[in-house]
Write a structure and sequence with these properties.
heterodimer, A: about 800 residues, mainly beta, Immunoglobulin-like, 5-stranded antiparallel β-sheet, 4 helices, about 5% helix, B: about 230 residues, 17-stranded mixed β-sheet
Chain lengths: ~800, ~230
């Protein structure tokens, strides 16, 4: 009887396997439509922990650069950070300070390859209708693993030590087979037995290595890309000794590395592009020292683009952290954040004194392109033929002299930043920052307006009463020279440029030049040249209070209109105002009420004809059920931008209001399998009362279900209905006339593991109907030839029938093959 | 042409949805690991659907339908994935299984003979059900001991609240902490306050170790007496 049941079960498994492979379903479960972005992956969300977000592109060659714009609950402005592009994906880690309940809103800005314009994702109205991530405080207590044995701080006999834990994270981006388990310094990863999410190391594989006393189990979890996702450790104590007594650790050196080789072929709009990439990453630890390195090489590397290859090698210990290669150093927000630096990056941490230093290139030189050379005599003719072209003296030694028509190149831009700080990094401290960045004039032959930038700043963190009170502040002053071609002023040039001023003023200019030309080039292109209204001063101050189940935060900021740091390209300037938000936990952490208010004004230097005031108020109520009732989130946002000009002023008047309502219902339940369902309804309306009347309206309804079966199969099914009304500039509608866009996307995805997890099959099928008509089909198979060696193949089909008012059927085909070894 | 394309697309969507719907109902959580044997003392045997009785070892995984049996002066500690613990006392036999119900999963421990202590963690959606041929006890987060399995069952609850139902009479009662419930073959079901001895025994069964009590009588210079009770585990 048991045999029959077993055969029946096997038959059913095979039937479903056949069904799954037949209806290959996408993993792009979010069902947001774009022909550039195929998928957005969000890592595990824990309040106060860094948050990893990854964007996968339809085509590897689609973007030169991508930025994530994100904001916390209660904020109007989005902060921007550049993402690290590697192959057909880009990743970013949101710093922990921004990962706070109840939500984080974000969208992406894509700088398209070969184009001067940008595109957003989601495409329509991303600022009014961004992607939203619910950050649940209730979830924060969840660990990604459940420790089964030994319990934390448990006392056990040496012969009874059974190590067991279970991964509870359903995230399909986790590679369970790559999980590493260490007992003290010994790597026991080859000793465990795994059944789906359960890991067991039996006593016979453990106890002979144990002496009496405390011991530590450490579990390292990796994603499918081989990157460490999380590390957990816990301690237990052994009573009595085992037969051997001492841990037979062969070496205190521990290391691992992985190699990934990828070949990819894209056939998009009948244009075929092959890509070949290789990634090698390695890390090793020796007691408290850690070494890590990474090299990424691609055939996309070209002299006329910014670097596509990446490399990094670094070392860490509790008191130092140094590295050379491509990195994204983090200094205070006003100084540097989100910029790639190729060079040296180091940190010293001595407790009461710390030092951060970075130096390297942030822009690589791209040599100018000479189209043609010609004798000086024909210069006038050439200029007449191309009045917008760039012309320059090519060879002054010839007779006649040779001139050239060319494309401007890009200067090599170097950056140096240093920040000594006093006090513990995670506690109260004060820091002082200095940043200097300069274009190397001699790096290319023909360039335009090389620049220079210096920033001086200070930052302060004060934590009191076990961090229940936190006071933060930072201020910075910048100076930027927009053209250093001719260096600092000469005395004679000062006399010429300021001939209308008296001698004492010219002397003052000379004194300023003499005082500061050692730091920055001083000439007429320097900002600021005056101190009225301090246009290049920026500062921010904040107070956070955590009492009586409240998390209250108040921030005041002022960023001058001329403030600029080459290490921080995304700071909004010319703004001042305040933000206040509060989050209250009620009814034993089942209810969360959040409210925020922000008022910001521009015209900080009082040089504009009018001042615009932006006001944002929002409120959100969340209920996290501990019974069978669903989790519920309701939120409302009202934002307005108004200036003092009368509405009849067709050029400068601004008067718009936006209202947004979001309702989300989520429920987990078991019915044949474990299901996580989500219903989300979001609607926003922008009423532009100015002469332009750029009203927009958008409604999105999404229903999704993630089902986890024990066999083990995971499916994601979603239905998204999107309807927008806006003012269109498409040719078939009157320019500036109203237009609408409505489409429905159905997305189904399945991930199936079989052969004891050696083979993973996944597929997706995602048709879109309405004003956009497209079908996405995706199939992926990953096979572990050995425990540490896998082969992954992916095929994606894009069957495009219609994109808004542009009919035309095209089929795009992308396939890739990845060989990966983890050691 | 467009009409045909649309029909094809609709058919594909329909097939995909049908497949997923069938998938959703086609599988039950019948073969997932439910629990783990974390400790063995003396003679403990286990039996799965496809195998006969064999010696159990620490670290053995238990799936739906697995049975565990203990010999004389033996003990098995079983830990579930939610960290709930069942301590199978000597000369006992039980089967573990699970079933789905709306809102969560029900983990079932069926006692055939002997007794076991339980320390069940509070669950959001899942439930535990302790059964015997005579009784069913539904719990969500509690501690105690169930004995019987062969006609007359006793349930001692040291923490939380348990609903105890008699399968013969279908009558049920709530057994709160500090009480003992009786469910018998004749359909009768009742409860009373548990004695200190019964509670101590249930606590030992649920938490492990044997608890001892040392009573000291202290007397000061004036002759006043005070009693000091020290409880300790071995």
């Amino acid at each position: 009887m048991y045999r029959i049941a077993s055969v029946t079960y096997q038959y059913r498994r095979e039937m479903w396997l056949a069904a799954v492979t037949l209806f290959i379903i996408p993993l792009s479960s979010l069902a947001q439509l774009s022909d550039k972005v195929s998928k957005v992956n969000v890592g595990a969300v824990h309040p106060g922990d860094p948050l990893s977000i990854q964007v996968e592109f339809v085509s590897a060659n689609v973007v030169d650069r991508i930025e994530i714009a994100f904001r916390q609950f209660g904020e109007r402005d989005f902060r921007r950070v550049e993402m690290l592009v590697a192959g057909n994906s880009a990743t970013v880690t949101i710093p922990p300070v921004f990962v706070v309940p109840p939500s984080l809103e974000y969208y992406f800005v894509l700088y398209l390859h070969g184009q001067t314009t940008t595109e957003n994702y989601p495409i329509e109205n991303p600022e009014q209708h961004p992607l939203s991530l619910t950050i649940s405080e209730a979830e924060s207590t969840k660990r990604a693993i459940v420790i089964l044995s030994p319990e934390e701080n448990e006392k056990v006999q040496a012969d009874d030590v059974l190590i067991s834990f279970s991964l509870v994270n359903d995230d399909s981006s986790i590679n369970r087979a790559a999980t590493k388990v260490y007992l003290d310094a010994a790597d026991l990863s080859t000793n465990y037995v795994r059944s789906e999410d359960l890991f067991v190391i039996k006593p016979e594989n453990v106890s002979s290595t144990l002496s009496s006393g405390p011991h530590t189990v450490r579990v390292e979890i990796f994603d499918t890309q081989g990157k460490p996702v999380d590390t957990y450790s816990w301690q237990f104590t052994v009573n009595g000794t085992s037969e051997i007594g001492l841990p037979p650790v062969s070496s205190v050196w521990k290391y691992n590395y992985n190699i990934q080789l990828e070949t990819r072929n894209e056939d998009i709009s009948s244009e075929v592009r092959p890509y070949n990439r290789a990634t090698i990453s390695a890390n090793g630890t020796y007691n408290q020292f850690r070494l890590n390195g990474r090299v990424y090489v691609t055939n996309e590397e070209q002299d006329n683009r910014q670097p596509q290859n990446r490399f990094f090698i670094g070392g860490e210990s509790p008191w130092f952290n140094v590295g050379y290669g491509d990195s994204y150093p983090i200094f205070p927000d006003l100084i540097m954040n989100g910029r790639r630096v190729r060079g040296f990056n180091g940190k010293l941490t001595f407790g009461k004194f710390n030092l951060d230093v970075t130096t390297g290139n942030i822009i690589r030189r791209i040599e100018s392109t000479v189209f043609k050379t010609f004798p000086e005599s024909t210069l006038a003719v050439e200029q007449a033929n191309d009045p917008t072209g760039a012309f320059g003296l090519y060879d002054p030694t010839t007779n006649p002299r040779l001139w050239a028509k060319y494309n401007y190149g890009t200067f090599n831009r170097t950056l140096f930043a240093i920040r000594p700080s006093f006090g513990k990094r995670e506690e109260s401290h004060i820091g002082f920052s200095y940043l200097k960045s300069t274009d190397d004039i001699g790096s290319i032959r023909f360039g335009i307006k090389p620049q220079e930038n210096v920033v001086l700043g200070s930052d302060l963190v004060l934590t009191l009463d076990r961090r229940n009170i936190e006071i933060t502040g930072q201020g910075a002053f910048s100076a930027t020279n927009k053209d250093i071609t001719n260096g600092s002023f000469s005395d004679s040039l000062i006399d010429i440029l300021y001939k209308d001023y008296d001698e004492s003023y010219r002397n003052r200019i000379r004194n300023i030049r003499d005082a500061f030309s050692g730091i920055i080039t001083v000439n007429e292109h320097l900002t600021p040249l005056g101190v009225k209204n301090l246009p290049t001063l920026a500062y921010e101050g904040g107070l956070s209070l955590n009492y009586f189940n409240n998390a209250l935060r108040f921030t005041y900021l002022r960023h001058g209109e001329g403030y600029e740091s080459f290490g921080q390209s995304f700071l909004r300037t010319d703004v001042r105002g305040y933000n206040i938000s509060d989050r209250i936990r009620l009814a034993n952490n089942q209810w969360f009420l959040s409210a925020g208010f922000e008022r910001l004004k521009d015209n900080t230097a009082e040089t504009k004809a009018t001042t615009t005031t932006g006001t944002t108020g929002n409120v959100s109520l969340s209920y996290f059920s501990r019974s069978s009732a669903p989790n519920v989130t309701l939120s409302y946002l009202h934002a307005s931008n108004v200036n003092e000009r009368p509405i009849t002023d067709s050029l400068y008047a601004i008067d718009d209001r936006t209202d947004r309502v979001l309702v989300q219902l989520g429920k987990e339940f078991t019915f044949g399998a474990r299901h996580t369902t989500l219903l989300s309804v979001s609607t926003s309306m922008r009423d532009d009362r100015s002469y332009r009347d750029l009203d927009t309206r958008n409604t999105t309804v999404m229903l999704s279900a993630i089902s986890t079966f024990t066999i083990p199969l995971q499916t994601v099914t979603s239905l998204t209905i999107n309807s927008s009304k806006f003012v269109s500039s498409f040719s078939s509608a009157p320019v500036g006339g109203p237009a609408s866009l409505t489409y429905t996307t159905l997305s189904t995805t399945a991930l199936y593991r079989l052969m004891e997890d050696r083979l993973q099959l996944s597929g997706s099928f995602s048709p879109t109907f309405g004003d956009i008509q497209r079908v996405l089909v995706d199939a992926t198979a990953q096979y572990y030839v050995m425990k540490n060696l896998s082969v992954r193949s992916q095929l994606s089909l894009y069957l495009n029938q219609k994109f808004y008012q542009f009919p035309g059927s095209t089929n795009d085909v992308i396939w890739s093959l990845i060989l990966r070894a983890d050691v | 042409m467009k009409y045909r394309q649309r029909i094809h697309t609709n058919i594909l969507v329909l097939i995909a949805f049908t497949a997923l719907t069938v998938l959703s109902f086609g599988f039950r959580p019948e073969n997932g690991t439910l629990a783990l044997v974390t400790k063995i003392v003396q003679e403990v045997m286990k039996k799965s659907a496809s195998n006969e009785w064999s010696k159990a070892t620490s670290g053995d995984m238990l799936i739906v339908g697995d049975q565990v049996r203990t010999g004389k002066q033996s003990l098995a500690v079983i830990k579930f994935m939610d960290r709930s613990i069942v301590r199978v006392r000597e000369q006992s036999e039980l089967t573990i299984s699970a079933s789905s119900q709306t809102g969560g999963m029900v983990k079932i421990i069926q006692l055939s003979k002997g007794s076991f202590g339980f320390d069940v963690k509070k669950q959001q959606n899942d439930r535990f059900r302790l059964t015997s041929p005579t009784s069913v006890a539904s719990i969500r987060g509690t501690r105690g001991k169930l004995s019987g399995g062969s006609g007359n069952d006793t349930l001692v609850v040291t923490e939380g609240l348990v609903n105890l139902k008699n399968n013969v009479s279908t009558r049920d009662i709530d057994v709160p902490a500090g009480f003992i419930g009786f469910s018998n073959q004749d359909g009768s079901i009742s409860s009373r306050k548990a004695t200190e001895q019964e509670l101590a025994d249930a606590n030992n069964a649920a938490l492990g170790g044997s608890s001892n009590e040392l009573n000291l009588e202290l007397r000061n210079s004036k002759g006043d007496k005070k009693e000091l009770k020290i409880r300790y585990k071995q």
